[in-house]
Every structure is written in C-alpha cells, then in structure tokens.
Q: What sequence folds into this?
C-alpha cells in the first residue's frame, strides 16, 4: 500500500494527522522546530499559560522512575500577555501550513481561567484552547478543580462562555470515576476531552532520606502510565460520545494505534519528546508505517476499532 | 522533514570505556561530527541503553575534544543506574548521543585563565585548558578531590600550565579545599577569568571569591534534566533578574550549563522557596 | 556495623522484619517454600479467599507493560473451607518460627466478606486478616466496595464485628482522595492499612485489534506504580496515625527503605516474586544490607523519617 | 536459607546465538546443571536482559538437552520485545535462566511414538525424539510449517526415524496441514503415543484425531506467564473436571506445559466465558 490517509476530524477540528504534542513537553515549539519541520505534526499544544508570569518550582523538577518520569515544573511561563506578544506569533506560519496550534490554559481561580482563555481566544492566535483543570493548588479552596464533577462543570461552563474557539478539557486521572468527570465536562460545553494528565506520584532518595523533587510530589508520565491511560480512554469512549485525545506514555506508532483502537480520535505525545527530540515525529511516521503494514487505508478505521 | 539540529542525534561508537578508579570511568567515543563542532563546556546527553529503559538520557560534559581523531572523551562517575549501565558498554558498540548541547565556556579576551575544578568537575576543564593553550593563552589550574585517586587528569594539566592540587584527605597535595590555593594565588596575582566546575559548596565559594575580588568567573552547573534541548523547563537554575522576586529560572541545558558566577543564585531570596506553583502532579 | 535490628511493631502485630509477601503473588507459600526458607520473611499474605471455590478468569490473565504487568486472575481460589482444610495447615510451622501468616479475604457481598472472615478468624490458622475491598464486581451494586467512604465504612465495620484477629484493610489506589478512604477504614476499626492494590489498566494488541487480557482490563503492578504507591503511603501517613503496609513496585531493599521513610511500618512485595522466585528474600537481605551501610541500628529509625 | 529449587536460578553462558531464518534463532547455552536434570518437554524462563526491563522472564521449551556437553538448546522466534532483545546476546555473555520448569513429556511404555509439530512447536519434540530413540523406542515425526524455511530440525528427525513433512505453501513436502499425514498414517498403522506441539488450531485437530482414534496423546501448551513456578495463577488453561462448570483452570507452568489431550479444553463449556470473576484491576 502506497498511500494512507492520516487525516482525522477531531470534533470541530480538522487534523492532517492524529498526532499532537502535549503541553509542557514541547515549550512553544521553538526548540523542537530546530530539529524538524513541525508541520509534520497534526498539532502542537503549547506550554500552560497563566494570567501572570510564573516562576515555577525550585529545582529539582524532574525525577526518573521505572518506565517514566515525575515532574513538578510548577507552571513556569511568561504569562499569557507575553505569550501572545512573543511566543505565539512565530507559530502562525505552522497554522497556515495546516498544523494546529492549541493554547493550554491553567489557573488558580475561576477568574484566572476565564481571563486567560478570553485573551487567547480573542488573540486569534490559536486554533483551540485546552483547559488544564488538573491543578490541585486552588486559591482559597484546596480542592482540585479537576477532581469533582461540580467544580469541573462550573469551571468549564464559565470558560466556555468566553471561549470562541473549540474547547478541549484535559482530565486528571487521579479520580475515582473518570466517566463522571468526563460527563460533567461535556455537559458544560467541552468540545473535546484530552486524557490523561499525569498521575500523582513521588520519588525518594533513600540514602539522603529526602524527596527527589523540591516540590515533594510530582506528576508521573511516560510509558509506565500507558495502561492506565488506555483504560481511561476506553472507559470514557465506551460511556459517551465525545471526541477524545488519548495521552499517556505514547512513544511509538503502535502505541498511538492502541489509543485510537481504544476510542481516541487523536493522540498526544508528551514524555517521548523528552526521551528523543524526534519523539513526536517518529510517532507520526511509525503510525503511517503501521497503517501501511496493516493495509489500512484511512487512520479513521482504527478509531474505536477494538474487538472485545 | 529534518532540520539542522537533528544532526545532534548521532550514533557514536565506543573506542574505549575503562575504569580509572573503581567508580570513575573514562569513555572515548568515535564521533567525528561532534568533535568537529563541539566547544569546551558543552555537554552531550547519552542514551546509556537502547530501548525504553532508562527513560531519560544522561548528561555528561565533554572532557576532551579531539578534532583530528574525530573523537570525544567523557569522564563519568558511577553514581546510579544509568552510569552503572554505561560501564557495561564495550569497545565497538554503538551509543546514541545527543549533542553538542548548551553554550560552553566563553574565553573572551582573557590572557591568563584560572581553572578551578573539584572532583568530577575537573573533567570539562581539560577541554577548556587545551583550547586556551592552543589559542596562545596561559592557564593555571586548581584541582581538588576527595583523595589522590580522584584527581583527574593532573598530568594533562601539568603539560599545559601551572597546577595546584589539594585533596580532602591530604593524600596528594595540601589537605584543603580547592578554594584555598586559589585564594592564596589571588593574594599576589590576577586572573583575567576563572572557569569553575565542581560540587555546589565549591561553586559557592568560588562565586564569593570572584565577587569579592571582582574577577570574572564562569561556572558550569548541573541540574536534573528532562529534554536537554530547552523545551521542558526541567533543568531550572535561579539567576538574578529584575523581577518582583529578584530572580528567574534559567535552563541549565539551554541557557547554560555555563553561567556567569555573578548572575547565579545558590540560595533563593526570602520567600522564594514558598512560592511554589502548581504542586502535586501538575506542571 | 555487624548487627542490625529489623523487628517492627505493626500495630498489634510483631514482625521479625518488615517484609511481607503480597496476596496473589505468593500462592499459599508452597511453591516459593521450595526456593527458600520462608521463615526469612516477616510474614506472608496468602492468595485471596472467597466463600465458594472460584474458577477465575479465562486466559490470558497476564500482560506485560513498561515497568510493570497487568493481571486479571479473577480471584481463582479453592474457597475458604478448602483453604482452611488444606492450604493453611502446612503454614502453621512458619508461624511457630515467628513468620506471620495473614489471610486475604475477598467477596462479592457484605455477607460473603463477613462469612469468610469469620471462618478464617475462628480457624486460628492466621495471625491477621487482610480485607481486599478493591474489587469492583459487587453483587447487585456495581459500585466498588473500596472506592466510596461510606461503603468502606460499612464493610469494614461489619467485618470487624466478626473478626477476632487484627484486621488489615487493603486500599485501592483508584480513588480521588485516598485519605478519605483511609479515614473511613480506620474509623470502622481497621488496625492496619495496606496500600496500594493495583491501578486499573489495560493493554491492547494493536495488530490483532484486541485487548490482551480476556478480561479486557486488569490491575497494574510492579515498578511502574512505585511513585504512585509512595505518594499515597506518604499522604496517608501525613494525614493520620495508623500503621501502614507500603506496597507497590518494591523490588529492592532501597525500594523498601523508601516506603518506610514515607511512613510505612512494613512493606509488601508482590510482582517482584514473579520477576524472581527469590524476589522477596532479596528485599529482606538488601534492606538489612542498606541498614548496615547507612549505619542504622534499627529499621524503626527509618519509619516516617523522610526529611522534607 | 536457600532450598533445593533455588538451584533452578542459574547463570548460563551463551555458546551460540544465531539466526536460522531472519526471525528464528538458535540459542545454545552452557548450563551443566540444567542439562544434567532437564527432561524433554520441560521449559526454562529466560531473563533476556539484566535489570528491571522487561519485567518478566520469557518461557522457552528445551529443544535439545546435551548432558555430555553440559549444554541446552533453544529455538526461538522473534515475535516481540523480549525475543528481539534476546537476539542481541553474543557468545560468551551470561544469561540468567530459571529451570527446568514444568513436567515434561511422559513416554510411559510406548514403543512407537508419533511426534507432531507445527512451526516453533517442532522445537521441543526433538529432545523427546532423541530420548525416545536412545531408550530404544521408535519414532515417526510429522512436521509442518508455513514454508520450508521454518521446517526446523528436519534432518535431525530424519536421523532418528521416519519423517513426514508438509508446508502451508507446498514449498517443501505436501501442501497441507500436519494433521493430514498423521491421519493418513493412522489409516493403516497404530501409534502408542502422540506428542504434539504447535499452534492452537493444530493442537485442536490433534486432540480430535486422538479422541476419535482412541490414541493417547500429550500436548505441550503455551500461555502467557507470570512467575513460572506455579504461584501466581497467571498461566491458566482449562481442563475437564468434576466441577459444576465442568472444568477447572490448571497452571501451564506447573501442572504442564504437557497435558493429556483428552483433558484439555480448547473452548469452554457454555456460559463459562461469562463467569468472569473479579474484573477491572483486581485479581
Ligand atoms: C551539564 C551536565 C554535565 C555533567 N557532566 C558530568 C561529567 O562530566 N561527569 C560525570 O560523572 N557526571 C556529570 N554530570 C552528572 C551526571 O549527569 C549524573 O551523574 C548522571 O546523570 C547520573 O546518572 P545515574 O543514572 O547514574 O544516576 P541516577 O541517580 O540513577 O539518575 C537518576 C536521574 O537523575 C539524574 N541525575 C542524577 N544525578 C545527577 C546530576 N548530578 N546531575 C544531573 N542529573 C543527575 C540522572 O540523569 C537521571 O535522570 C553532569 C551533569 C550535567 C547536568
Ligand atoms: C511453555 C512454553 C514454551 C515455549 N517454548 C517456545 C519455544 O521453544 N520457542 C519459541 O519461539 N517460543 C516458545 N514459547 C513462546 C514464547 O514464550 C513467546 O514467543 C515469547 O515469550 C514472546 O516474548 P516477546 O517478548 O518476544 O513477545 P511480547 O509479545 O513482547 O511479550 C509480551 C509478554 O507476553 C508473553 N508472550 C507473548 N507471546 C507468548 C506466547 N506465545 N506464549 C507465552 N507467552 C507469550 C511474553 O512472555 C511476555 O510476557 C513458549 C511458551 C511457553 C509458555
Ligand atoms: C515536563 C512536563 C511538563 C508538563 N506540563 C504540563 C502543562 O503545563 N500543562 C498540562 O496540561 N500538562 C502538562 N504535562 C502533562 C503532559 O501534557 C501529559 O498530559 C502527560 O505527561 C502524559 O503524557 P505522556 O506520558 O506522553 O508524557 C507535563 C508533562 C511533563 C512530563
Ligand atoms: C498476579 C497478581 C495477583 C494478585 N492477586 C491479589 C489478590 O488475590 N488479592 C489482593 O488483595 N491483591 C492481589 N494482587 C495485588 C498485590 O497483592 C499487590 O497489592 C499489587 O500487585 C501491588 O504490589 P506490587 O507492585 O509489588 O506487585 C495481585 C497482584 C498480582 C500481580
Ligand atoms: S532539560 Fe528540558 S529544558 Fe533543560
Ligand atoms: S506463571 Fe505463575 S502460576 Fe504459572
């Protein structure tokens, strides 16, 4: 088979292929753009933006674990205004070439989520906005935004009201029932769900008797979490009808195919970018290769195609 | 599809990989492209084993850059899983590396350069010393280690200039910290530039000596890394800045690993440590 | 240092060392007893028992994942009566030699949990009972026993009433807030908590487009989950004062030390037994070695000793 | 502290590891203890790489057991990550194995033994054939494979007895399934015992032939494994039993891998598949 069709329709978004790079692992694309032409990607989701610049956590921010890594970057970012002024404009050429640019929004209050979203949406510089509601540090509260259905509903609904581009809501896996959260997000107006964000975890240096991360705990990502991510994608895809970006431990084309089979329409590559600067590109190429080998003409044939 | 930096991903082959002490190894790699373009102070990320484990590459400074032979050398200490795996790689085997990365030392117009190295920190200074001497500059090296066994490359430095050695146990040279001979030296002489690499307490001392003496100094720093290419913000190090907090985090892999001593912060101003950010699973 | 003291007091239980083998990975001890003298262990927790014999799930029951494995054994066991008659008596000699024998109880209803517990408790053949309340298949319900504080309270309290030996409650990590569950279990009378059981996960064979496990989903264990387990142990130890058995991905003495530092009083070795028949013995030996190297006289010095 | 079975954990050394076809390798291990006690039909769990990855050992049947040389041989097909890693092991390197495991074939009083192998399933039959002939029994082998390239050890079998070969593509022997020559043979002759190993459809056919002809048959089965020693219940295979359901699960690693054909179930009675058990994360 010579040619395969990799295009997918992810809710309101048209992707040239289903591979996105995930927030926080790809900066604003600049660094990896020196390694390969980013227009090979379906889209890139940029680093989380907040209302004001954020310093982030003290180091160490990264710890390696079996099959994965822990990170506690702490949302270091220049703030949404600086991002709009400096980071997003260089990416506009990519959009013209059919690769989506998606903003990732974090916040410490409903107001911050809305303010950042509105600015990004109004800027015209992004094709969609991904809401990162998995951050447990909430002003005044202490309860995480992303782990209770009611809060999820409220924050997504508030943001939806000020967001004129497609809205992706990124779910935390640190919950008892991911479908409950998914329902809330969908009911509140999410166009697309991305799952999963990192699992909460911790690493200890036994000899020094200290946590490795300055932040004590961090987010677990990479191949180690792939089984958990696959299961949550499958579970949500079975429970409801909303387009899903499947994320968690994808490092190969076969991994990507597994997520599509489980019910995702697109996939996100995170830690693989850290393991290899060509990580996401390889996923694109290997997925295409996989389709050819399996004599599958269109990648859409895989979506939800698991035989149970 | 590939762009210029993709050349930094290269399959090198092991020329030699042998122990200098039971836990310090000397690795020589055939890597013509790398040798041709690397600068002293730059580093590489080494994929210690093929496959998924360990997850991340390991950063090592270039100890020596041999353009003619098309080789680079690394000296590494076995401290954990990755370096342990690395010891098993034999001559002839391939190792994938990513590099050169980071900015390297900047020798500027300096005529007389002081090189201050502690332990493994001595490793990258040799490359700088060799370049400096080749360019007709003068060097003086201050080398310190736990014991004489860990005094790397002493002979090589002696071929290039004056050398002061100290050890923690007095087994070779004076029993002192490496800041001691440097301070003694600076009582009577002036250095145009100091290049330092070693454990944090040593770098702190160096910074304070450079600050008080008004000598320009560059320090090569270490930090746990993710990507190595500037994208993940994993390798943060605080440097002074005109922000409300008085500092920002720079990336050791991309903005460093070499920083000006006067801009680096070894402890954060006031409430900084409290200003955490999004903790517990997020990023 | 020549001699180190490895004894710990785990709530009401005295252990010669803090290393237990975990349920489901060690059968009833018989097979591993051919590899080494099980009296080297602090204790063994035997395979889950139910009221009636259970066939278990159709194969495949095991899938390998990066840094871990998925299993869906399906509680295959001969039933509590047969276990009391045939499996537990051979272990009594171990108890005389100071190695604890702990029964693991599963069930599909409150009644079943209580019935099995009572039989085991009355048999006099076990030093303690571990309640496995992480099984999502519940008669009539559908909601898991172990994931909602109220149900946890009810099942633990009912079992407590018929249990005359120390009661360990084993928590599921598939929850939003592990401390909430831990509180419920403690309030209902648990003497000890063990955490964690497996993370819910899934593996797919992309070429065959099929799940690898016949059961579709399974439980993720092994080194991959260690960061998640460490964090949950730390979180519960910070939140309350109950002895904890730390479990998840322990394969070495250093791993064990990390869990003790995080606040566990004992540790459980599961998947490591599958990776190496001497797996648990090695943890015992390496932990002792670790103490010697670090010049720590008593293992109790490690417990909760994390410097944050 | 260690007990008798701990001897099964042994460090063997690679004598040879070379491809027979691009995806089938022949591994020879120096393993005197193993060779001394192993029986045909038993298997070993191979730790394909040191360290934590891959998590589990890989099970392989013994293809040949050479007591004199203190060697065992394995033939393996590269089908995934573990076998792929295994291809990289070179002569002289150490490989940790666990074995011998399982029960092996039981030749009983059989005088004439039929060996029926499909693809990789041919591998363990050679050890059985060699033992049988050594004990003065007669063998007849029925070997089938995708193509001639995958017809393992044909010459070795020919040295031991009569051999019928078939291939899926007709490149060597008749274009047929291996049950065909067996059935033809049984039209005129009688076998005291059949030993079978191969893909499930072949084993099913074999079972039905043995059942209808009333011939005793032993099948060597495969299942995904955890521990390999009988403790985790990971490697379940359904066999007939006097239970309400009509079957129970036995352990391939411990009760097998060799089972009597008449007791094995290749499909479950009625509602069995529904009788799940505790799903979704539990065990
Ligand atoms: C720019 C730079 C240059 C370096 N040059 C040298 C050198 O020339 N010689 C040398 O011996 N060492 C050097 N190091 C330190 C070296 O990277 C670590 O010793 C090594 O990564 C430890 O790996 P491990 O798997 O053996 O240890 P583990 O502790 O098992 O590693 C776990 C994780 O932590 C990271 N890590 C642990 N210690 C360090 C550290 N000190 N710095 C950065 N990451 C760490 C590892 O990379 C890995 O991701 C350098 C570090 C940096 C950042
Ligand atoms: C008793 C027994 C004897 C065997 N003898 C041979 C032999 O002589 N020659 C040979 O080529 N193969 C043999 N196999 C099959 C062999 O074990 C698998 O092909 C091998 O484990 C695949 O490993 P992998 O990492 O390459 O594949 P992957 O698919 O990457 O393995 C993933 C996991 O699934 C398991 N797995 C995958 N396929 C099988 C399978 N067919 N059987 C059991 N486990 C599997 C692996 O062991 C591993 O745990 C035997 C299997 C058993 C149970
Ligand atoms: C270093 C790092 C930084 C991250 N930063 C963010 C972030 O800013 N916003 C966000 O929504 N997710 C962030 N994530 C989570 C990833 O986007 C992704 O959801 C997660 O890592 C799982 O995918 P993976 O296993 O492919 O990495 C970060 C992950 C890593 C490893
Ligand atoms: C094959 C297998 C079977 C298991 N069976 C049980 C069981 O019957 N009851 C139970 O409470 N836990 C069971 N578990 C969970 C383990 O006891 C343990 O909690 C889990 O595997 C995490 O520890 P580990 O990473 O060390 O394996 C099982 C785990 C495995 C791998
Ligand atoms: S390691 Fe990723 S930015 Fe430096
Ligand atoms: S593999 Fe564990 S019982 Fe067979």
A:
């Amino acid at each position: 088979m010579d040619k395969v069709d990799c295009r997918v329709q992810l809710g309101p978004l048209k992707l040239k292929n289903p591979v996105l790079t995930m927030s926080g692992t790809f900066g604003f694309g600049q660094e990896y753009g020196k390694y390969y032409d980013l227009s090979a990607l379906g889209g890139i989701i940029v680093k989380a933006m907040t209302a004001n610049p954020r310093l982030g956590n003290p180091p160490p921010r990264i710890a390696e674990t079996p099959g994965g890594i822990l990170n506690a970057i702490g949302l270091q970012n220049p703030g949404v205004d600086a991002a709009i002024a400096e980071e997003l404009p260089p990416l506009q050429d990519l959009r013209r070439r059919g690769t989506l640019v998606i903003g990732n929004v974090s916040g410490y209050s409903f107001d911050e989520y809305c303010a950042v979203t509105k600015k990004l949406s109004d800027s015209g510089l992004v094709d969609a906005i991904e809401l990162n509601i998995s951050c447990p540090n909430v002003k005044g509260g202490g309860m995480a935004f992303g782990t209770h259905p009611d809060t999820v509903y409220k924050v997504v609904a508030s943001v939806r009201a000020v967001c004129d581009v497609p809205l992706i809501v990124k779910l935390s896996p640190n919950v008892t029932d991911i479908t409950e959260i998914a329902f809330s997000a969908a009911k509140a107006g999410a166009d697309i769900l991305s799952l999963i964000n990192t699992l909460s975890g911790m690493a200890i240096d036994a000899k020094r008797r200290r946590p490795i991360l300055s932040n004590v705990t961090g987010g677990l990502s990479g191949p180690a979490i792939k089984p958990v991510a696959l299961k949550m994608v499958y579970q949500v895809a079975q429970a409801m009808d909303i387009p899903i970006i499947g994320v968690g431990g994808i490092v190969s084309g076969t991994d990507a195919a597994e997520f599509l089979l489980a019910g995702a329409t697109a996939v996100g590559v995170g830690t693989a970018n850290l393991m290899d600067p060509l990580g996401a590109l390889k996923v694109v190429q290997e997925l295409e290769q996989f389709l050819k080998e399996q004599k599958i003409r269109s990648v859409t044939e895989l979506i939800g195609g698991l035989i149970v | 599809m590939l762009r210029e930096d993709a050349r930094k991903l290269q399959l090198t082959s092991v020329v030699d990989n042998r122990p200098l002490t039971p836990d310090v190894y000397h690795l020589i790699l055939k890597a013509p492209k790398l040798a041709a373009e690397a600068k002293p102070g730059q580093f590489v990320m080494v994929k210690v084993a093929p496959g998924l484990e360990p997850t991340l590459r390991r950063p090592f400074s270039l100890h020596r850059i041999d353009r003619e032979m098309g080789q680079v050398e690394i000296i590494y200490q076995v401290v954990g899983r990755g370096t342990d795996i690395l010891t098993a790689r034999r001559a002839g085997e391939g190792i994938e590396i990513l590099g050169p990365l980071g900015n390297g030392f900047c020798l500027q117009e300096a005529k007389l350069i002081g090189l201050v190295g502690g332990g493994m920190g001595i490793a990258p200074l040799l490359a700088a010393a060799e370049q400096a001497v080749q360019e007709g500059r003068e060097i003086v090296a201050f080398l310190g280690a736990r014991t004489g066994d860990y005094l790397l490359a002493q002979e090589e430095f002696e071929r290039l200039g004056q050398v002061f050695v100290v050890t923690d146990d007095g087994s070779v040279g004076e029993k002192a910290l490496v800041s001691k001979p440097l301070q003694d030296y600076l009582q009577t002489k002036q250095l145009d530039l100091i290049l330092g690499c070693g454990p944090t307490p040593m770098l702190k001392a160096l910074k304070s000596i450079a600050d008080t003496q008004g000598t320009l100094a560059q320090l090569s720093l270490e930090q746990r890394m993710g990507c190595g290419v500037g994208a993940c913000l994993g390798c943060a190090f605080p440097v002074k800045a005109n922000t409300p907090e008085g500092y920002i985090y720079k990336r050791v892999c991309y903005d460093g690993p070499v920083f000006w001593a006067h801009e680096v912060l070894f402890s954060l101003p006031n409430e900084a440590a409290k200003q955490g950010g999004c903790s517990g699973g997020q990023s």
